[in-house]
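In this notebook, the sequence line spells out the residues, with the fold written below as integer tokens. This is how one looks.
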Amino acid sequence: MILLRTMAFSPQTAAFARRLASESGEKVCCVVDERKGMVDVGEFDKIAITRSACQALGLYCPADAGWRCGDYGFYLARQRYPDERFMWLIEYDVRLSGPHISAFFQCFHAADAVDLIAGHYRRAEKWWYWTHTMASRDQPVWRCLFPVVRLSDRAIDLLHAQRKAYARRPMRLANWPNDESFVATILSRAGMQCADLNDFGTALYDDNTYTFNKPFDGQLIDERALPLKVFHPILFGDDLMRKLKRMAWINKGESLPRKVKRRLIEAINSRLPA
């Protein structure tokens, strides 16, 4: 099934959800951050991300959990749909280009043994912002990009158990791992099969189409007229303006106090077992 992760249900998001449902052959359920209020998702099933829902599953909820912890949607969905063997999480600002979305999913018809599929899956660089949150003694840190992710049922169960275990460790609480560092690292260290979106015979993305820091204006892109690619982020109107302002702030660089805190936590975590 497909979990469509969103914070609102704009006309553009609704159109994307309906295209996913009609062309993928998969059930679509919206995973919605409702910590600030309810969101109407029309005819689709909905899983609400709220503090109480997450805490009921034993999950620690920092103030930015709805943004930082995209993997929480998998755990809530696993509770709702226990018979699903694989789940895709696709964010609202993703677009799968080409005349028919089914072409994307057909790339993975022989991937039943793979537990994690994500873009930019690799060993984390020392300088990466989230590396320090998953640092541990004698263990590498891995990373991925989270807008398009597929997890197996056994991967979801392992990750959920590990999130609950981390919630009992004060140093993990001090700087809670984000979804991209946590998921890639835990599954890689456990020896589960992990793969990149581009590992299945088709180049589904590159640094120009699938990125964090270069938003596309959705008004200027006709995804149906383009060859098969994963695009992110495609934004419209106020969402686009907010993203551009955020990127301008990020590009100013990390403040010295934040950098010192990050290095200190990394040093402490590096002395702890995984």
